[in-house]
Amino acid sequence: MPLEPISPDDAVELYLEDKDNELAQASLYAHQSRLGHFIRWCENEEITNLNELTGRKLHRFRLWRREDGDLATASEKTQMDTLRVFIRWSASIDAVPQNLSEKVISPSLSEEENTRDVMVDPENAEEILGYLRKYEYASERHVVFRLIWRAGLRRGTIVALDLEGYYPDEQSIETVHRPESETPLKKKQRGERFLGLVDETCDVMDAWLVDRRPDQTDDYGREPLVTTTQGRAQPGTIQSYVYSVTRPCFWKRECPHDEEIQECEAASDRTKASQCPSSKSPHAVRRGAVTHWLSEDLPERFVSDRANMSPEILRAHYDRRSPRDRMEQRRGYLDNI
């Protein structure tokens, strides 16, 4: 089949439209961001037609992206893997030669590079909760941190929670996939479930709803569980809450980086908390929670169900126990063999 001319930006736009129903919203945004770098490179190279792409040009993009973004190996792999998917899709609409995707070179990762070890330690998490309990009881940051550490919720799941999905008498919350009203779940319908809550989490939630929660509805007439004065809390807002409470200067009142707290921008401005080298993301808190549950000898199936992930993903990307720790936990079952 002869190739049909199409510009890089038009092709990316068509690709994103095609993937809209297939990818979660956060994944779609990630693809859009990564392919935005490809469009920028095409503009620099004056490539106005995808038909012109060759394996050599794609390799030049890889070198340009590595230099332009100062990428770690894992980030480079993510970038090139997304490009390969896009090039394969482009071949399906006769925009590039068939099998061109096979010429997209992506680095291989070692087992250590393929997993991320950044997480919040249980001792630190409990100290953060203790500080929030004492000084910010039932605040938005207290609620969000507890829902991640105690319930293992993803950032996007917290955004999607509604008042009607919280059942205080049953001590549970319900997660629902609603892409039509801008609150999709990462696992879509597979992310829908009821999740039990412990007494203290419900106490904090109840106090939040009675005393602290801004009375807001979203653009679709729904009542979000976690709100700001502008409406439903957004993913970036949840992210900023977690970055801000995981700074050591917040809950320990000391800086491990020898900075003067009063003069440190990351300490004095909550919106810049992520600049602190010791601050942690919601994902790091969730990873720490999952590892802690496993270390407490909770069954793997319970942990994977509660965290809404497959046992394979759990073992590969979240279980940070050392081989010796796993051996010692198995020791308790030896008498039954």
Automatic annotation (TrEMBL):
Entries under InterPro entries matching the protein: CB, DNA_brk_join_enz, Integrase-like_cat_sf, Integrase_recombinase_N
Matches recorded under Gene3D superfamilies: 1.10.150.130, Intergrase catalytic core (1.10.443.10)
Superkingdom to which the source organism belongs: Archaea
GO terms under biological process: DNA integration; DNA recombination
GO molecular function list: DNA binding
Keyword set includes DNA-binding: yes
Keyword vocabulary terms for this entry: DNA recombination, DNA-binding
Domain Core-binding (CB) stretches: 6-91
Protein name: XerC/D-like integrase family protein
Organism: Halanaeroarchaeum sulfurireducens
